[in-house]
Design a protein that fits this description.
46 helices; elongated; 1491 residues; alpha/beta; 26 strands
Length: 1491
């Protein structure tokens, strides 16, 4: 006989496994104990036991943590004893106990007892937090929720006080988790080994690696399949972020093999050469991989459609379950299958969606690498780059970003229509023809959105053009900031930039208000579509049945996203197309082809001369060559045609080893001839022949170009360091003494060498060219800015020494070089002829050519101190070489308050109120719909979509409490309120964003231009421009956009949770334990993402700086054939930037997948709860509402955290801008007293014990300077390069605060005056001529305070300047950015003309004649004699000829006044330094004194 053994649940517990009874929503006690409490208690005990035994690392905790642990131990002991006391009490009072009660009590007692053991071990072992692991916190929270639910259940019983006490102690336990405290890992201690111990002990040894030392390796390359699927390979990165170890680029992932920079840039370059267009090249290079990713998108979309259908099936089971409530007791498994399907499809959609995003970001990075490399490469190779319309820096930043962002838009372009058509078909199956009402509303929006998208695209193009103009003006202003400040023109240039900004903001406003309209349609569409669809459906006679209604709600929600996203997708594609055309414009520029510009040198075959062995080879030749600038003809608005400058009929033969000197007047064409040799201008006819193309030329331009870095780096310039050769070059270029004064060759110099004097810059540029060891050297007037003895040294030891075997073409006026020249050419008005110096006798000034051996002999015996790496440790780090500063950790409240101040408190509060109102009305309309569904008839025929359906049976056999008009009117009222709140919120947000953008940019501009001088010395132009380009773009556009999304997501999630918990309270059992998981994820991710974003922003600055430097030194780089090395350097910097972007994308997908898995858990849990309750609960309206919101919570969770992280990342831009908003202004900018009326009237200057240093870590530049001038006295200041001559002017202009002493002008201490007053009333002609883009009139008179007649009158005293202005087309003639359409001498003449026009009482001329020819210099001397009769003049000069016009001479040496006297006295004193300087320049004493 078979014995059937079965489990009797009612004997185990009275109500068995039934969750509910009757119509009560309370869970039965047996269900709670068996299904919920026993499993959770067991899991919690297991986790405590595991952690108890697994800790291996000692921890030292502070007093707070220890006290919290002891309190928690006490609470846990009480909680462990409570169940025992309770069971004894029940037994004593005769309460009937079931087996399950005893089992649960035993489990609870064991759980808390094991937990006590874990807490005891945590005092000395474990992690730095006292709260325990995430799993433990989640499980404890589940225990707490179950205790609260048990309390709710026990209210109906006599033993409720026991449940209340348990919950109270649970709350005590929770309170001990709130404070943080501090802890550190204890150092590992090793006991002294004894001889009797075995070498291999019987204990394990654990090695703990510091996260700082952990190398993350190549991204994803070493990951296994599972790790790749769930992004487990990102975990070490997140751990490093939490530990605060993401401080430099090296801490991030290395690029995987698929992102090899060189390979990808070469691939796109090949594709561009094949397809000729950027679009075609991207398609050819990345198309197959890009299109295949669409399979993932298709799978995710398809899985997404299963959710609403399965929800409808589940709700039908609810209805059937409630009908069969009193039928048989057999379990209906169908609802559970629907719930399982809901969970599975959500999981598939999550995984496919996340991997689609990851793959698309990888494709985007590949495209970015290719495009940015192509832009850089084209910049190096393109001819006529100056004519390229867009600002190239913008092409590299904003335009590339838009093209890359279009990757996801292209997939959305096919995905969205697919989603729309599928959703519409499914809606038709649910609502029948009624769905057309909602669809019609959506269709009406399509042309509206398309029109808006087109306008946005148009305004975006205009916005980018306006941004280009602003950036060009800003770049020009920042580059010349020091000269602008010296002239007190800050307000002039601020107004100029503001005018560009005003135009930019006008387009920004139009775009933002159109964006606001899009946001309005996006936010109001869900309510309007559901209102129209269900309203028409009801009016057609269809009842609102839960299954079809909530399937339709879910489908309508799915419809809204694509409908609203489509305009943005179109907008993104339009913007990308505009940007692609801008990049294409650059790519279409012809390349500079050296092989077509140059011809090979042909050997002569006439008369058999080529057979002579002693014939010197020809290395370069020009035959009947005509040249003109690429710019060609320029027409300005007043139809004044600018003259075209040409070199005509140039015939030149250069032999190996020749020294060729070029001389001629200013603007004659000497520099253009040099440019013609290096292919810098167009050769319209004739031929240019060179012996060798590949090695290039040793080139030193008239305006030296240096890179930001150390002096040694600038000289070595990528070559191998050869110490003997390096020492020889330093000595030959007269840099030895300068390096000793500067503090060594590893001292940092600012961008373009701005921290060096003009002469030092020229010599470092010369040293760089000499070190490159080229065969032909082109030196463009490098001796002009040098002192006489330095120039003689360079001629003797460099040009005639180290370079004596080389071919040298030198622009110069040096008679010493003329003596040794093989040819001397005169260049005037574009014609090259033999110079008269060739026929005149030139005296040899004791220069010996055989000096090469002397140099090497000297450098072997010399004590030139070269810095090695170790010496850096002993010095203070030079502030110029410091990396860009960045913050660590959280975004500070100061940054947030900075942005809120920009918006304004009333506007911020108003915006927030309307955002809340919008969400509230949206949630109320959904809740009202659920109420309507619940109150309406349940259809017994299951024929929800039939038009002839008539409501015949009502719930509980009664009529509905209200008619359809009542429900519909309230529904429509809520829809109208939602619409009003939404439109107000949208436009308020747009207005707030624009207001903040204007405020932040204006303050940034003010702060930067009024910053201290040394800020521009130690900060590169690229860094500053980064604040005005990408950071300003973020504040203008990205930040308001993402902040808008953040608030919508935050309130959307809050509303969804509230509605879900209201509709299905038991979801709290799932939601509450998920809170610590969510908080832990956001805590870990935000730590990492913040630092990654900062690193990413900082990695862009070196990239932009390198690009800016490359454009500035393009001619030098091309001429010296360094393009390939610069491209390699650019790739290295690009790799750092891409590493940061790759790491950021990996972290985002790591987070996205985990958040979606939480959503899967929530949806699955809600589905199973609905399945459990299907046979007992009779409110399908609320169940449908809860699950439809649970479906949306998945997206909201991810959306919120992404929005939080992205907002925080965008706030990094505000943080970086705010850093500059805290810049200190110059000392006493506003002044403490007003100057007397008419000050200065006499120009009496007095320096008293003046000492000055530029920066704290530098040596004192001026020592104890004491002198005073008489009224209208002319003082000449002379001295070798770096002696401190320019610093005298700097002290007067308050460039840096005096360390000691004071300077008075007409008895007024200049320190007490406002800076603007001081600098406006002093005239200065600075060492570096500064011109800006605009007319001649604007350059001469930026404030427009003079009439044209006054300008021409001022120019009349300088004939050369008058001729120059007339040649440019008069006062309305155009000057290009930086004066690039003028030679260096002409630029200096313009600055002299500017000084003559100002005619101040005190005029400082700093090396004002260094680039002038003798004729122009004489004209300048005459102007000084005639125009500055009633001015005190401080004249700093290298060339001493003409200084006899001065009333007094000051000789400066090492920052001190060594000699002072009249020119005649000092010249006649044979012991004086001035006397020796005159002799060094070959000036006869008698001749000097006679003039």
């Amino acid at each position: 006989m078979d014995v059937v053994v079965y489990w009797n649940w009612t004997e185990f517990c009275s109500t068995g496994l039934k969750p509910f009874t009757g119509n009560s929503n309370d869970l039965l006690p047996c269900f709670q104990e068996i299904v919920l409490q026993l499993p959770i208690y067991t899991i919690f005990a297991a986790i405590s036991a595991y952690n108890f035994g697994s800790y291996t690392r000692s921890v030292l905790r502070d007093v707070l943590q220890l006290r919290l642990l002891y309190l928690r131990i006490g609470v846990t002991i009480v909680l462990a004893q409570l169940p025992i006391w309770k069971i004894f009490e029940f037994h004593h009072t005769g309460v009937k106990l079931y087996p399950v009660d005893v089992l649960v009590v035993a489990a609870e007692c064991v759980m808390w007892s094991v937990h006590v053991g874990y807490l005891l071990s945590t005092r000395r072992f474990g992690t730095l937090t006292h709260r325990g692991s995430l799993c433990m916190n989640v499980t404890w929270l589940a225990v707490f929720v179950l205790d609260v639910v048990w309390l709710r259940t026990s209210v109906n019983y006599d033993w409720w006080p026991w449940s209340l006490v348990t919950v109270i102690f649970d709350i005590f336990y929770a309170l001990t988790l709130i404070p943080t405290g501090n802890a550190v890992f204890a150092a590992l201690r090793y006991s002294t080994d004894r001889e009797d111990e075995s070498l291999l002990g019987n204990r394990y040894t654990y090695f703990h690696f510091d996260l700082n030392e952990t190398h993350l390796g190549h991204a994803q390359d070493e990951a296994n399949y599972t790790s790749s699927l769930i992004f487990g390979w990102v975990d070490p990165l997140i751990a490093k972020g939490v530990a605060g170890c993401l401080r430099k680029i090296e801490d991030l992932f290395d690029l995987p093999d698929s992102l090899n920079i060189s390979r990808l840039s070469e691939r796109l370059q090949i594709c561009i050469s094949q397809s000729k267009t950027l679009f075609g090249a991207l398609h050819r290079g990345f198309g197959p991989e890009f299109y295949l990713i669409g399979i993932l998108r298709f799978t995710a979309d398809t899985a997404g459609f299963a959710g609403p259908l399965l929800l409808g099936g589940l709700l039908k089971q609810q209805h059937q379950g409630s009908d069969n409530e009193h039928g048989d007791d057999a379990i209906n498994w169908t609802p559970y299958l629907y719930a399982l399907g809901l969970c599975a499809t959500t999981l598939i959609s999550a995984i496919c969606g996340t991997h689609f995003n990851w793959r698309i970001s990888m494709i985007g990075m590949k495209m970015r690498i290719g495009i940015v490399s192509a832009i850089y490469r084209k910049s190096l190779e393109a001819r006529g780059l100056k004519n390229s319309r867009p600002e190239i820096l913008n092409l590299m930043s904003t335009d590339t970003e838009r093209i890359v962002n279009s990757c996801i838009s292209i997939h959305s372009f096919w995905s969205i229509p697919f989603q729309l058509f599928t959703t519409l078909y499914l809606l038709y199956t649910q609502l029948g023809a009624a769905f057309l009402a909602g669809l019609t509303f959506g269709i009406i929006l399509i042309p509206i959105n398309r029109c808006i998208a087109q306008r946005i695209g148009r305004y975006s193009g205009c916005l980018m053009s306006a941004k280009d103009l602003r950036l060009a003006a800003t770049s020009e202003t920042i580059s010349g900031a020091k000269q602008i400040k010296l002239h007190a023109w800050e307000d002039v240039f601020i107004e100029k930039i503001r005018a560009c900004r005003k135009e930019e903001v006008s387009f920004l406003k139009k775009r933002k208000y159109l964006d606001a309209l899009c946001v309005y349609f996006w936010a109001t569409t869900p309510v309007m579509m559901s209102f129209l669809s269900f309203g028409v459906s009801v009016l057609m006679g269809n009842p609102l049945v839960a299954a079809s209604t909530y399937t339709s709600v879910a489908l309508l929600n799915m419809l809204i996203g694509p409908l609203n996203t489509f305009p943005w997708v179109l907008n993104g594609l339009i913007e990308a197309w505009v940007s692609m055309k801008r990049v294409q414009e650059l790519i279409d520029l012809p390349n500079l082809d050296f092989s077509s510009y140059y011809n090979p040198v042909m050997k002569s075959t006439s008369h058999g001369n080529s057979t002579k062995l002693n014939e010197t080879a020809i290395v370069m030749e020009m035959k009947s060559a005509y040249f003109e600038h690429e710019n060609g003809v320029k027409n300005d608005n007043d139809d004044n045609q600018q003259q075209i400058f040409r070199l005509e009929n140039v015939n030149l033969t250069v032999k190996k080893g020749d020294l060729i000197c070029l001389e001629g007047p200013v603007g004659g064409g000497k520099s253009i001839l040099i440019e013609a040799i290096v292919a810098g201008v167009n050769c319209t006819s004739g031929t240019v022949c060179v012996h060798e193309l590949t090695s290039g030329f040793g080139y030193v331009p008239q305006t030296p170009w240096l890179q930001r870095g150390t002096i040694r780096d600038n000289i070595i310039w990528g070559n191998v360091f050869d110490e003997q050769k390096y020492r020889a070059v330093l000595y030959a270029c007269a840099l030895t003494e300068d390096l000793e004064l500067l503090g060594g060759d590893l001292i940092g110099i600012g961008e373009n060498g701005r921290t060096l004097s003009g002469g030092q810059r020229a010599r470092v540029a010369l040293a760089r060219a000499v070190y490159q060891d080229k065969k032909i050297y082109l030196l463009d007037d490098i001796l002009a800015s040098l002192d006489a003895h330095v120039a003689r040294h360079i001629i003797k030891y460099c040009i005639l020494g180290l370079l004596k075997q080389k071919t040298r073409i030198v622009v110069t006026r040096s008679l010493s070089l003329f003596y040794h020249a093989h040819q001397i050419l005169h260049v005037e008005d574009g014609k090259v002829t033999q110079s008269q110096y060739m026929s005149e006798s030139v005296d040899d000034l004791d220069l010996n050519e055989d000096t090469t051996d002397d140099i090497y002999d000297y450098t072997r015996r010399s004590s030139i101190e070269l810095d090695d790496g170790s010496s850096l440790d002993k010095k203070s780090v030079d502030s110029i070489m410091l990396e860009e500063s960045r913050e660590y950790g959280k975004i500070s409240l100061n940054v947030l308050s900075c942005y809120l101040r920009a918006i304004g408190t009333p506007l911020s509060i108003s915006t927030l109120v309307f955002v809340i109102l919008m969400q509230l009305t949206r949630n109320l309309s959904d809740a009202w719909l659920a109420h309507w569904v619940t109150d309406t008839t349940l259809d017994p025929q299951n024929n929800e979509t039939a038009l002839e359906h008539v409501a015949v049976e009502f719930r509980n056999g009664t009529v509905p409490p209200h008619n359809i008009a009542y429900y519909l009117s309230i529904f429509s009222l809520l829809a109208v309120l939602n619409s009003l709140a939404t439109i107000l919120r949208s436009f308020l947000f747009a207005f707030a964003g624009i207001k903040a953008a204007i405020y932040v940019h204006d303050r940034l501009l003010q702060k930067v231009l009024f910053a201290k001088f040394n800020f521009f010395d130690i900060t590169s132009v690229g860094r500053i421009l980064n604040r005005f380009s990408s950071d300003t773009y973020a504040v203008d556009d990205s930040l308001p956009f993402i902040l808008n999304i953040l608030l919508a997501q935050l309130l959307g999630l809050a509303g969804a949770l509230c509605i879900s918990l209201y509709a299905m309270p038991w979801l709290g059992i799932l939601i509450i334990p998920m809170i610590p998981i969510y908080l832990n994820l956001q805590y870990r991710y935000r730590y990492a993402s913040r630092d990654i974003k900062r690193l990413s922003s900082n990695a862009l600055s070196p990239l932009y700086t390198h690009f800016t430097e490359t454009l500035q030194g393009l001619v030098t780089i091309r001429t010296m054939r360094a393009s390939a090395r610069f491209q390699r350097d650019f790739h290295a910097k690009l790799e750092e930037s891409i590493k940061a972007q790759l790491t950021s994308a990996a972290a985002q997908q790591w987070l996205g997948l985990r958040l979606q898995l939480l959503g899967v858990f929530l949806v699955g849990g809600a589905g199973f709860l609905a399945a459990i309750t299907s046979a007992y609960v009779t409110n399908p309206g609320l169940v449908g509402l809860a699950i439809s919101y649970a479906l949306s919570i998945t997206g909201l969770l991810g959306g919120l955290l992404n929005a939080v992280a992205e907002t925080e990342q965008e706030f990094v831009a505000v943080e970086r801008v705010n850093e500059y908003l805290q810049l200190e202004g110059e000392e006493n900018t506003e002044g403490t007293c007003e100057p007397p009326f008419g000050w200065p009237s006499q120009g009496v200057l007095k320096f008293k014990n003046v000492e000055l240093r530029y920066r704290d870590n530098l040596a004192v530049t001026l020592h104890n300077i004491n002198f005073h001038t008489e009224a209208f006295e002319r003082v000449g200041i002379v001295g070798r390069t770096g002696a401190g001559k320019s610093t005298m002017v700097a002290a007067l202009m308050r460039v840096a605060p005096l360390t000691r002493g004071e300077i008075t002008l007409d008895c007024v201490n200049v320190k007490t005056l406002a800076l603007k007053v001081l600098r406006e009333r002093l005239g200065i002609i600075p060492q570096e001529p500064f011109l800006f883009e605009g007319t001649v009139r604007e350059n001469l008179d930026p404030r427009r305070t003079h009439y044209d007649s006054e300008i021409w009158h001022a120019l009349a005293s300088c004939h050369a300047a008058t001729q120059l202005v007339q040649s440019l087309g008069g006062l309305d003639g155009r000057i290009e950015k930086g004066g690039i359409n003028l030679s260096a001498g002409q630029r200096q003449l313009m600055c002299l003309a500017r000084g003559l026009l100002k005619n101040a009482k005190v005029v400082c001329i700093d090396e004002g004649t260094s680039n002038l020819d003798d004729e122009s210099a004489i004209a300048m001397q005459q102007a000084l004699r005639n125009s500055f009769k009633s001015s005190t003049v401080l004249f700093i000069a290298h060339r001493l000829r003409g200084l006899q016009l001065m009333d007094r001479i000051l000789v400066i040496e090492q920052g001190e006044i060594k000699e002072e006297g009249t020119p005649s006295d000092l010249a006649h004193n044979s012991q004086s330094l001035f006397h020796s300087m005159l002799l060094a320049q070959g000036i006869s004493i008698e001749e000097f004194c006679a003039n």
